[in-house]
Specification:
heterotrimer; A alpha+beta; B mainly alpha; C alpha+beta; A: MetI-like fold; 3 domains; 6-stranded antiparallel beta sheet; C: alpha+beta; OB fold (Dihydrolipoamide Acetyltransferase, E2P); 2 domains; 5-stranded antiparallel beta sheet
């Protein structure tokens, strides 16, 4: 443990004997604090998602999901709650509570249910064991349209990303490899609208979607998002680095323009396409306001909309909401674990998100 | 070898499809020439872009001059500047509650304070984090990832995570309870809720700005610091005279980006507080959304007018960003 | 067949006129080299023949057929690019096959052609590698191979050797000449290196500022350059140019003074020169010899470069620079005064417009 701490806290390159400067302490306080604050909430949520509704309502809450143990005792119809009871002689016994009168509890030994033992309620503590309430995860699939939402989210994310990649790369190809009148104008329009946010155009956009009959349709969620200026911009910048001589060579090789796009330019743009694909997946998976506007039928909700609607209801079923939230987080956490380095360098390079 | 075999298996149907597509496109190319093909490649994107971005942008102005609750433009009546007049009709311009659209001015006021506090605190936190991450750290990319993690989370998830933590039986109260405090319903308190929206949105977004600032810090040539060390410059002086001036262009870009984002705040706050309690966390985007769609008394024209006013603010900020970008570019050239 | 005829070809980008009234007749099987300084339009000319650039006016015919509006793909030509332009994501074999697949050739024939070209260029063992795994010379061969498998009407080569190191360039040059001898197709070759032009070409086209300055065999250009530009461009080191004045005229000769007072008698038939006229005399450095008699040109030595087999002397003649390449090793140091003789050297006379005077 000590060796591990020394390894982690070691300052790289610092001469060993110089000791700790106050800035080193600030650094490590900040980093450890950051670790707790950034990951802590998600971890807490994940632990909570395995708790039973009763455990969720407890205060103070426990970190791990506990359930209280019950036992069926001969002579009693309902299962009884088990307690560790301190006996007058100082020993501890596991007893089942039959009923409580004032501060005294009437308890029985599950093995010998005939005799009633009276115990002060301050002398007994519930028997608890760690148990994961996996039904929080399985039940929403049955009782709610959760599977439906999951499918809608996956559909929107995959289809929107595919269309984004194709449509943006075609436009980027035209804008990087052809000379034509109006090219600069097209580029200018795309750049100028890089900053048109949804909140500014949502009212008229909604009327256009309605006019096109795409209200309450997943296509109404997908289409407005696919012509991202960001995507065109990233891909074009990358395609500009592909030498024009390659295009000329392909033309001399009797390739059609479509083949040049498909067989030469697209394979060579793969790294930029990958970055855009990751961004697009995260964007579309996380989209909230626009699906909220377009989708009003429950069976069309995406995960994000479904979650927000359920969590806004008067009687919030937190045990299900928490589990659904964890499921919603999974793809993004996977992206984070496997592609984090890829994304961070991508953002640092382009300054875009 | 198996990997290439797999990908070739995957690509075979796609390639076949592309070959089928190629035949008519070759004919198109024969007919229109190469420049015609340029138009062909550009068309789908520009079409979608035109219908779903440019057209709404234009219609918005028309929309803002119409009244009624209908969504189809043809069913709406022209009312001229009435919606704008309504937004601006106040008895006392210093008191939002005296305005006809008091919700709008409340949202404007809330958004203003939110933007001011969120951006300044977040940039400060990002800057400190970036400076710390720029030190000679073991496992720097791990620490960088730690601060970046919330950026990828969906706003709905962010809202729910914090709603869960801030509730009465939540983690925050539990921690305070360990120090002897009584549980408190944070999200029923106007001030605390407002503070929570700021804190949560800083938590969710600071990783992105940290990343950009860190890239800026790492672009500062190492030999400048070595030269300063040779001159015996004190660390504080190094920060004020070398780091900060050289980071200034990045810092400005980051501030403007954060401003643009903060003005549009909606998702996570909507899930966390729903704008409440009362109207204490009602921000502009939520006002537009509710005026346009959500309430029974919806008024899309009014929402459009408000969104245009918000758009104007964003245009100013974007121009600021372009100006800042150009200046830092010129600096780079010199 | 690979006969290419350009008539009155012009090309401009907006107001920039990059090709001016190009007339050129390339015969079948000919190895022709476009040479000129960078920006002279030689690459643009090649690209207009390829069909990669449209011409503004004029006519291009391949084997008698007008191809102005025929796309690059359908002109039946193949091109080797300066950067080789190999598709980086394809193996060598796929690179070679790409063009053939596009013309729907049967698989068996594609394989046969690739095999043949690979053997010819000795790249068989690299066929399954990607271009990134090859050396510069190997990539160059693949680029040529990609052209060969197409069996084109003519090969267009755009500075194909300029990315190779000096040694490889010399050996590849010889291989290219051998390849042409073997295939016999028309080859059009663009370079800025006049040594490549001299060693490879049947005929050289010298270009400057979008215009053809002279077309001829290498020795034609060397012996009778049509103007001062060609004279200076062909031959290394560059030809010396000295200002001269006509002092005596004869029907079969003229007498000039150079270097202030030195008199030169130049045999020249059918000229229209008159006494007092100012000319430029061109003398190749290799044609100057060292002399001992004081009656020859007296020059002051500025710099001596001893190359072993020959000695390059940079000298000064009445304020004009004069370069001489003399055989063997000489005991001369900067600052010395030496005597140069131009007796028997071929002299080139150019008028004020830079045009050649006489035959």
């Amino acid at each position: 443990m000590g060796a591990a701490a020394r390894f982690i806290l070691r300052r790289k390159g610092g001469p060993g004997g110089r000791g700790w400067h106050w800035t080193d302490i600030v650094t490590w306080v900040w980093l450890i604090g950051g670790l707790v604050i950034m990951f802590g909430p998600a971890v807490w949520l994940t632990f909570s998602s395995f708790k039973t509704p009763a455990a969720l309502n407890e205060f103070p809450p426990s970190i791990l999901p506990y359930v209280t143990s019950q036992a069926t005792v001969e002579g009693y119809d309902k299962p009884l709650q088990l307690y560790d009871a301190k006996m007058p002689d100082g020993s501890t016994r596991v007893l089942a509570e039959v009923r409580r009168i004032g501060i005294m509890a009437q308890m029985v030994d599950p093995k010998a249910p005939g005799e009633i033992i009276r115990v002060n309620i301050n002398d007994r503590t519930p028997v608890r064991s760690v148990s994961f309430a996996t039904e929080n995860y399985t039940e929403p699939f049955v009782h709610f349209d959760f599977l439906r939402y999951l499918w809608n989210s996956v559909f929107v994310t995959v289809v929107a990303t595919l269309i984004t990649l194709i449509v943006n790369s075609m436009a980027a190809f035209a804008l990087s490899k052809y000379e034509f009148r109006g090219r600069n104008l097209a580029m200018l329009i795309i750049l100028a609208t890089l900053m048109v946010p949804l909140s500014v155009i949502m009212v008229p956009l909604y009327s256009i979607i309605s006019t096109l009959g795409m209200f309450n349709s997943l296509w109404g969620v997908i289409l407005p998002t696919v012509a991202t200026p960001t995507g065109v911009f990233i891909l074009r910048q990358y395609m500009l680095t592909i030498p024009d001589e390659l295009i000329d060579a392909a033309r001399m090789d009797k390739a059609s323009e479509w083949q040049i796009y498909w067989r030469i330019v697209l394979p060579l743009t793969a790294p930029a396409l990958a970055v855009l694909a990751i961004f697009s997946v995260v964007w579309r998976w996380n989209d909230f306001l626009w699906p909220l506007i377009v989708l009003s039928r429950r069976e069309l909700y995406t995960l994000q909309v479904g979650l927000s609607i359920y969590s806004g209801e008067l009687n919030v079923q937190w045990h299900f909401i928490l589990a659904m939230t964890v499921v919603t987080m999974i793809p993004v956490v996977l992206v984070f674990i496997f592609l984090q380095r890829f994304i961070t360098t991508g953002i640092a390079g382009t300054g875009l998100k | 070898m198996t990997k290439t075999a797999f990908s070739s298996l995957l690509m075979t149907p796609v390639n076949a499809l592309m070959r089928i597509v190629d035949a008519p496109l070759r004919r198109l190319q024969k007919a229109t020439g190469i420049s015609g093909m340029a138009a062909f490649f550009l068309a789908p994107n520009m079409l979608i872009f035109g219908i779903f971005v440019l057209l709404p942008l234009v219609i918005n102005f028309v929309y803002s001059m119409t009244g009624g609750t209908a969504f189809f433009l043809s069913e709406r009546s022209f009312v001229g500047g009435e919606q704008y007049a309504r937004l601006f009709s106040c008895v006392d311009y210093l008191d939002p509650m005296s305005c006809q659209e008091d919700a709008f001015w409340t949202a404007v006021g809330n958004t203003f304070w939110f933007v001011l506090l969120q951006v300044s605190l977040m940039i400060l936190a990002s800057l400190v984090t970036a400076l710390i991450l720029n030190r000679d750290l073991v496992a720097r990319s791990f620490w960088r990832a730690v601060f970046f993690f919330p950026v990828l989370l969906s706003p709905v998830v962010v809202g729910l995570i914090w709603k869960w933590i801030l509730q009465r039986q939540g983690l925050l109260n539990y921690i305070l309870y360990q120090f002897g405090a009584e549980p408190y319903s944070w999200l029923t308190d106007r001030t605390w809720t407002f503070a929570a929206t700021i804190g949560v949105s800083i938590w969710a977004h600071m990783g992105l700005y940290t990343l950009i600032l860190l890239a800026g810090l790492q672009a500062i040539p190492k030999d400048l610091y070595e030269a300063a060390e040779m001159d015996g410059t004190r660390p504080a002086r190094v920060f004020w005279r070398i780091t900060l001036p050289l980071l200034a262009p990045n810092l400005l870009v980051v501030v403007v980006l954060a401003l643009i984002k903060a003005v549009q705040v909606f998702d996570e706050v909507y899930v966390l507080t729903g704008g409440g309690p009362g109207t204490s966390t009602l921000y502009l985007t939520q006002y537009i959304y509710e005026t346009g769609f959500a309430s029974a008394l919806r008024n899309p024209g009014l929402a459009a007018a408000a969104s245009i006013l918000m758009g104007l603010v964003l245009v100013v900020l974007t121009l600021l960003q372009l100006g800042v970008g150009r200046r830092s570019e010129n600096k780079g050239k010199r | 067949m690979g006969e290419i005829k350009l008539s009155d070809v012009n090309k401009s980008y907006g107001s920039v006129h990059v090709l001016k009234d190009i007339d050129l007749h390339i015969k079948d099987g000919e190895f022709i080299v476009f040479v000129g300084p960078s920006g002279c339009g030689k690459s643009t000319l090649l690209r207009t023949i390829a069909g990669l650039e449209k011409i503004t006016s004029g006519e291009i015919k391949i084997d008698g057929k007008r191809v102005n509006d025929v796309s690059a793909a359908d002109r039946g030509l193949a091109m080797v690019f300066q950067s080789y332009a190999l598709y980086p994501h394809m193996t060598v074999r796929q690179n070679l096959a790409f063009g053939l697949e596009n013309s729907n050739m049967p698989k068996a024939e594609i394989a046969e052609r690739i095999g043949e070209a690979a053997r010819m260029l000795e790249i068989d063992q690299y066929l399954d590698r990607r271009p990134g795994q090859l050396s510069g010379g190997q990539r160059q061969r693949v680029a040529i191979g990609r052209a060969i498998v197409r069996r084109p009407t003519a090969f267009l080569l755009d500075e194909p050797l300029s990315n190779l190191d000096a040694e490889l360039r010399v050996s590849t040059r010889a291989e290219l000449a051998a390849l042409h001898a073997r295939i016999g197709s028309t080859m059009i070759y663009v370079t800025h290196d006049q040594v490549e032009a001299m060693t490879l070409a049947h005929r050289i086209v010298v270009m400057r500022a979008g215009k053809i300055e002279q077309v001829g065999t290498p020795l034609d250009l060397y012996n009778t350059p049509a103007n001062r530009f060609v004279a200076g461009f062909i031959g290394a080191p560059h030809m010396n140019f000295l200002s001269a004045q006509v002092v005596e005229v004869d029907p079969a000769s003229v007498t000039l003074t150079i270097g202030g007072s030195h008199r030169l008698l130049v045999p020249l038939a059918g000229h229209k020169l008159s006494v007092g006229e100012k000319l430029t005399v061109g003398i190749r450095p290799q044609h100057i010899t060292l002399a001992s008699d004081p009656g020859s040109l007296t020059v002051k030595v500025r710099l001596v470069e001893a190359l072993g087999s020959e000695t390059v002397i940079h000298a000064d003649l009445h304020g004009e620079k004069l370069l001489a390449v003399v055989q063997g090793q000489k005991q001369i140091t900067p600052g010395d005064e030496v005597h140069f003789s131009v007796a028997g050297a071929p002299l080139h006379l150019f008028d004020n417009n830079g045009l050649r005077v006489g035959a």
